Amino acid sequence: MAIKIGTQDMVARYIGSQEIGKVYIGSDLVWEKYEPDYLKIEKENNPISITLRKVGTPPNVSIEYSYDKKTWNAYNIGTTLYNVSTVFFRGNGNTTLAIDKSNYLNFKITTSWGNGVKISGNVMTLLDYQQEVTMGSYAFSYLFSGMETLVTAPKLPATTLSPHCYDNMFTRCSSLWSAPQLPATTLTSYCYASMFSSCTSLHEVTINADTNVNSTNLSYWLSGVGSGGTIKCKSGVSFPSGASGIPSGWTRVDI
Q: How many CA atoms does the CB half-sphere of 178 hold within 13 Å?
């Protein structure tokens, strides 16, 4: 139900300088301001330095950053943000952050010894925070690769995948214990290739796929992961064995 003040739909309204976030009729919530689930990077203990850097010649993209989700600034690729406790990123009008395995954007985070990094929010907001977009090939390839201090990963909510979209996305994230949920039901060419390769602490994966589940689309996705992990997947779906499927020593749990 649209809430109106006079003839105007309620989008963003203020009382004095205070923005209205929610409207109730009695005890019933009838309107709440929508806020995208921006990509959030935060320190676990001590402040960190963050750079979204170019490798090769990646596509030109539009990215903004904010420390409070109110004031947003254009982010110049390659600029280092120093002494960060929490920062948010969002994109506008992008479909991919990479062209291929040699030309991509990659987050580099510098921390003190023993200091972890937590990333949350919807990774798709790096493409476009205002609308749903279909990601292009290699969309997030290598984006967090080499982030050895990453302890939590962002949401990957896309249900329509593209070729190589998550290729090497978390390679060598050696502190990552649990993978983000993978809700897509249909896989496509090399979409999860080497996605968690050399994530030596990884022990938990949940995958919803039931179509095109093969060793090509899962090529080496769990190569070099932790031993004795658990993979949760749909009952009745056949998975290859080994690094391009279910690794030796891992337990399958049907969901």
A: 10
